């Protein structure tokens, strides 16, 4: 097994995968951030928000402490649960499945 020092010395930036982050501000403005070398490039998303709204109607928010940002635009189902091995997700399965079936119809 290679030592940590040797692994760090043999590291190559070219082996890193390209990263792209989509950010939606509270006002609805969408931007795309991409890293190129040691600089960051920010590009505003050219797709108007109105065009994509027809594709998404329901959002399943399965997180603890994450609020529903656009309640007037989407139908939310919030399951406030911690990302922890002891969390019993099966307690919410029936409600979540009903919500997904509602979204499909």
Automatic annotation (TrEMBL):
Matching InterPro entries: Prot-tyrosine_phosphatase-like
The UniProt GO MF terms for this protein read: JUN kinase phosphatase activity
An annotated GO cellular component: cytoplasm
Record-linked Gene3D superfamilies: Protein tyrosine phosphatase superfamily
Instruction: Quote the protein name from its UniProt record.
Output: Uncharacterized protein
User: What species was this sequence derived from?
Assistant: Dissostichus mawsoni
């Amino acid at each position: 097994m290679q030592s940590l020092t040797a692994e760090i010395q043999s590291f190559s930036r070219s082996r890193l995968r390209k990263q792209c982050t989509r950010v939606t501000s509270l006002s609805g403005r969408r931007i795309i951030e991409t890293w190129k070398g040691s600089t960051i490039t920010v590009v505003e998303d050219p797709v108007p928000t109105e065009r994509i709204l027809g594709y998404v109607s329901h959002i399943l928010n399965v997180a603890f402490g994450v609020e529903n940002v656009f309640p007037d635009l989407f139908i939310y189902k919030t399951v406030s649960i911690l990302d922890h091995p002891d969390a019993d997700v099966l307690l919410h399965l029936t409600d979540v499945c009903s919500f997904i079936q509602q979204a499909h119809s």
